[in-house]
Write a structure and sequence with these properties.
This protein is α/β, with parallel strands linked by helices. The chain contains 17 helices and 5 strands. Helix 15 links the parallel strand 4 and strand 5.
């Protein structure tokens, strides 16, 4: 991928169309190969656009299906569904996000107090561990905001089991730098590598596997990596928390004076019936800085800002810019506009959701509700994200028939 991506829907559509010929057999054959920075030609690199819905999952899957058919494009389509699976899984077990946040705060406290840990984490982030592949990926992530999915798994495995660093600090490092980072995919992918998501089945990085799928770019030996006998499941002896119902959503009412809040959860306003509402104020809300207590990459912040600006420009509306700092900023904006409803796209579990939860009580005190649009794509998939991916995979033919081939 290039060092700079244009965070617009137009750029996302160009990137999507250019990869259409590779969405079938070529993707299935080459998707596991990491060819290195600037050479990710076997994968689409559409995730930064999909994560902000500059292009939607449904659009991408429709193109793959219509061009190659369900069987030939199976692997590509499944990869798109994985992001939706992770989001639905975390919506059904939001306690896991809360546990991550609590654990990360504890790990950051240890980082401040433990000089040795601070040194080791600094070396890992700087790409100075002496493990050539790991060091290369650390540098690539910070230079580009992207890593091949296979490299993400290897990196996380080495971080956790070979370097023996706290997994949440690694997840935080990714979240601060990944252009496509979202709370669900990032957190649950790290948990999966650690053997916490699929209990007791960690992902193990090996010299042979890395060499095979990186074109022998790195000189590696088996003893460069830990011999992993088990994952970190003993650190969570109670197992996974119980499933909860998907949270209730306030549907927007066209009869209420409305403030429109645009976030990078969904930058395709044209898919919603904005014209039916009595809109008194519009704001684009910057929230990527909430990803971490540590410094978030300027590349991530700039990409979010450009995506929001593009969403507003395409809507041909005028909007002010708000920043998610003191939650009272939302109340003051709504009061000044004289509205009783703030409408936004559905906000999934993560930092922005936590921030909005802080704002809701005061909004409610003033008779202001937070209403959300929710996409049919999510409501079709999330109820099946109760366990492993298999339950989602079984539903893919039905979803394709109902939402893509119709």
């Amino acid at each position: 991928m290039p060092l700079t991506l244009d965070a617009t829907r137009a750029a996302g559509l160009v990137a999507m169309q250019s990869f259409v010929p590779e969405m079938g057999r070529q993707y299935a054959a080459g998707r596991n190969f990491d060819h290195g920075m600037g050479n990710h030609t076997s994968v689409s690199v559409l995730s930064p656009y999909i994560s902000r819905r500059l292009i939607s999952e449904q659009e991408v899957v429709t193109l793959a299906f219509s061009t190659h058919g369900a069987e030939v494009a199976e692997k590509f389509i499944q990869e798109v569904f994985w992001r939706s699976y992770f989001k639905g899984w975390l919506e059904l077990r939001p306690q896991v996000w809360d546990l991550y946040c609590e654990g990360l705060n504890s790990d950051l406290g240890s980082l401040n107090l433990d000089r040795g840990l601070r040194r080791d984490v600094s070396c890992a982030i700087a790409g100075q561990t002496g493990i050539s592949c790991f060091d290369s990926w650390a540098v690539e992530l910070q230079k580009t905001g992207y890593l091949h999915n296979h490299a993400r798994m290897w990196f996380a495995s080495i971080w956790i089991f070979t370097l023996r660093l706290p997994w949440r600090l690694g997840a935080d490092f990714f979240f601060r730098h990944l252009l496509d980072g979202d709370a669900a995919s990032n957190t649950l992918s790290w948990r999966w590598v650690a053997g916490l998501h699929t209990r007791g089945r960690p992902y193990v990085a090996t010299a042979r596997n890395i060499a095979a799928f990186t074109g022998q770019r790195f000189s590696l030996k088996d003893n460069d990596f830990a011999n992993v006998a088990h994952g970190l499941e003993a650190t969570e002896p109670d197992g996974l928390p119980p499933l909860l119902p998907l949270r209730a959503v306030h549907s927007p009412l066209t009869t209420r004076p409305t403030a429109l809040l645009i976030t990078d959860e969904d930058c395709q306003l044209e898919d919603f019936n904005i014209g039916d509402f009595d809109i008194r104020a519009i704001s684009m809300l910057s929230s990527s800085h909430l990803r971490s207590a540590l410094e978030v990459s300027e590349r991530v912040l700039d990409f979010e800002n450009a995506a929001l600006v593009d969403a507003v420009a395409r809507s041909k509306l005028e909007a002010i810019h708000l920043r998610a700092d003191d939650p009272d900023v939302l109340l003051n904006w709504a009061l000044a506009a004289g509205v009783t409803q703030i409408v936004t796209s559905y906000v999934t579990r993560g930092p922005l959701w936590d921030w909005l939860e802080q704002a809701k009580p005061k909004l409610s005190e003033h008779g202001i509700i937070l209403a959300e649009w929710q996409r049919d794509w999510d409501t079709a998939i999330w109820p099946y994200a109760t366990a492993g991916f298999f339950k989602i995979r079984k539903q893919i033919p039905r979803i394709l028939k109902e939402m893509v081939s119709a």
